[in-house]
Amino acid sequence: MRIAQFVGSLLEPLGGAEQYCLELARWQRDQGHEVTIITGWVSPGIEKSLAAEGLTVRLVRSRRPYPPDRKGSKPSAVVFHALDLVGGLRVSAPLRRVLAEPWDVVHVHRFAGFGAAMLRSGRPTVMTVHDYGLVDTSTTLLRHGREVEKAPLVQRIRTSITNRSVRSARLIFPTERLRQKHAQWGLELPTKTDVIPHGWRGSAPSFTEHDGPVIFLFLGKLIAPKGIELLLSAWAEGIRGAELWVAGAGELESVVQAHESVRYLGWLDDTGRRAALAAASVLVLPSTWPENFPLSAAEGVLAGLPLISTTIAAPPVLHEGVNGLLAQPDAAALRSALLELLDPVTRGQFAAGSREIALALDFDTHGRRIEALYEELLEMDRAAS
């Protein structure tokens, strides 16, 4: 097959959706498919690394007035949102030329900067929904740090425009919760959608009890919705017999660096992440928004680690009482969960649970499910011709 994998940007540090897009492209290439990754922005280092792997990346001018890793001024933000609405109505000329090429399948991961109208590509089109960007420009459903149940007026107007396009695509939701919340916020789901949990690749389970302190590890972007401030509040001045390691980058780096009882690892590459996971005792995901399918949690499970998260994040690979704990999103409750995981017997039981749950993350199985969906769409397209 000739497959176009669309993602709005590939800028360092990569988010979960971008990492997933690249991993799927690698798997498809290894199966003999012709895969092109199409993006509006790419970091030179990432572009060079992907070229060395033999992955084709094409840059297509997008409508964004400033890079997605920067915050624009108020006037430029207004321009961005206006262009976002335009992109929901019609496709730009550069993108139209790309979509006109003879792709067998167009697979969209993020259309920010391209616009929702690209889902009406005229080709068999799939969209993996990685967050709440279809119904909420903040992508989190949060307002003033709290989840809201109903979309604000501006978001409802945008969603009504997006609804014109989504009916032309096959939507994949990694969790049922994600699908239900989109419907709750006004997305008119196509007649048929799919819930296909992500697969992921990871090292063999490495959890072993070792001498020394219990190491709690955070992996992810250092931004408010990921709950890093909540974690630091729960950690306070530390916990006897334990260490907190934080790996990531983002606008809250200085907050982490100022915390004397925290070991800050910076942003880690694949090798660094594997080493951190191998050294860790527990992975902590303190997000304060309803997470979709956080890859850091999947990495923790694949490494055979116990997990701690919040009841609002509730990552699908964390099964309460089987491989980890869910705490209310407040500092006292999260600290209580950290203290509970000081017990080596509890950690051992949860680690065994993660090793069992990891079996469902096999990426080869996942890739074949996506491939089968492509074949189904191609067959429907041939029947309609």
Give an overview in words.
By secondary structure, this protein is of the alpha/beta class. The chain has two domains: 2-199 and 362-384, Glycogen Phosphorylase B (Rossmann fold, 3-Layer(aba) Sandwich); 214-361, Rossmann fold, CATH 3.40.50.2000. Helices cover 38% and strands 16% of the residues. It has helices at 16-30, 44-53, 74-89, 93-99, 153-166, 176-184, 228-235, 253-257, 270-279, 295-302, 331-340, 344-357, 363-384, and strands at residues 2-6, 34-39, 56-59, 105-108, 125-128, 142-143, 146-147, 170-173, 194-195, 214-219, 242-247, 262-266, 282-285, 307-310, 324-327. Strands 3-2-1-4-5-8-9 form a seven-stranded parallel sheet. Strands 12-11-10-13-14-15 form a six-stranded parallel sheet, with helices on both faces. A two-stranded antiparallel ribbon has the order 6-7. A hairpin with a 2-residue loop joins strand 6 (142-143) and strand 7. Helix 7 (228-235) crosses helix 11 (331-340). The mean pLDDT is 92.
The overall pLDDT, averaged over residues, is 92
Helix content: 25-40%
Please describe the biggest sheet, giving its number of strands, its sense, and whether it closes into a barrel. 7 strands, parallel
CATH fold category name of the largest domain? Rossmann fold
Q: Helix segment count? A: 13
- If you compute it from the alpha carbons, what radius of gyration comes out, rounded to the nearest whole angstrom? 21 Å
Shape: globular
Order of helices and strands: EHEHEHHEEEEHEHEEHEHEHEHEEHHH
The CATH class assignment of the largest domain is: Alpha Beta
Number of domains: 2
What is the percentage of strand-forming residues?
15-25%
Cα separation of the termini: 18 Å
Annotation, overall tally of beta strands: 15
Q: List unreliable stretches of 5+ residues.
A: none
What is the CATH-assigned architecture of the largest domain? 3-Layer(aba) Sandwich
The main sheet orders its strands as 3-2-1-4-5-8-9
Indicate the structural class: alpha/beta
Say which CATH homologous superfamily of the largest domain is assigned. Glycogen Phosphorylase B
